Amino acid sequence: MRLPDFGAKVMGLAADALFPRLCPGCGNRCDRPGRYLCWSCFSGIELFTDSLCDCCGRLATGEVGHRFVCSACRHIKPSFDRARSAGHFTGLLQHLLHQFKYSSALWLRNDLTDLLEGCLRAHFDAEQIDAVLPVPLHRLRKRQRTYNQSDLLSAELAKRLNRRNDLRSLSRTRTTGTQTRLNAIQRRENMKGAFKVTDPPMVAGRTLLLVDDVMTTGATLDACATALKKAGAARVWCITVARGI
């Protein structure tokens, strides 16, 4: 172990002894080194495992013993090649993401990236990824919030994968407002043309991993993938911490 790493570890242990990290799920002292969510709460998060749409990752109704594509993807094929989410957007995971996104609970980044990394290892070949990209916020929205939660997640995941975290190639061209009250068709229309590639040579011919916090209908990820594919990206894979209904 290099000396700086050893020193950082010692300082971390000392800090934990003086200021114990309390789990946001149960309130008990955290027993996961360098994290805030304890093992019991972390293992209790409901994850997506099998019986998923091969394209968008939607959970199938009942058990499916073969690869399948859901009716939504058969009706309108997404521009992305595959999308997966780590867990269900409910309960503790929903609470953590709301805290992370809206209440500046940036200390949850490693816990949430643990979920992303586990999902990635289970559903993708990480060696094929050339670069990691966050779903961008419009500059006005980012100025209001002061940070983009997807930037933080993609940066940490890219570091673990030893890949480039690309913050420049994809940008949002306009504000799209909240999509909470829109249905799937309305969301898709709302997101059309909302993103552009500012540096096509950096994405052309590459396999890209697009990172966001939550996927609902997939309209945002699809709009990003559409722009990336038009700029020549070979494949666009998408991964989120959670997926809603």
Provide keyphrases for this structure.
five-stranded parallel beta sheet, alpha/beta, globular, 2 domains, two-stranded antiparallel sheet, Rossmann fold, 245 residues
Count of folded domains: 2
Order of helices and strands: HHHEHHEHHEEHEEHE
What is the global morphology? globular
What's the total helix number? 9
**What's the N-to-C terminus distance?**
45 Å
Percent strand equals 15-25%
Layout of helices and strands, plus pairs?
Elements (H helix, E strand, L loop, with lengths): L2 H16 L20 H5 L27 H5 L6 E7 L2 H12 L6 H15 L7 E4 L4 H7 L3 H13 L2 E2 L4 E3 L11 H8 L3 E3 L9 E9 L3 H12 L4 E9 L2
Helix pairs in contact: 5-7, 8-9
In words, what does this structure look like?
The protein has helices at residues 3-18, 39-43, 71-75, 91-102, 109-123, 139-145, 149-161, 184-191, 219-230; strands at 82-88, 131-134, 164-165, 170-172, 195-197, 207-215, 235-243. It is 38% helix and 15% strand. It has a five-stranded parallel beta sheet with strand order 1-7-6-2-3, with helices on both faces. It is globular. With 245 residues, it is an alpha/beta fold. Helix 5 packs across helix 7 and helix 8 runs parallel beside helix 9. It has two domains: 1-44, no CATH class; 54-243, Rossmann fold, CATH 3.40.50. The protein starts with a helix and ends with a strand. It is built from nine helices and seven strands.
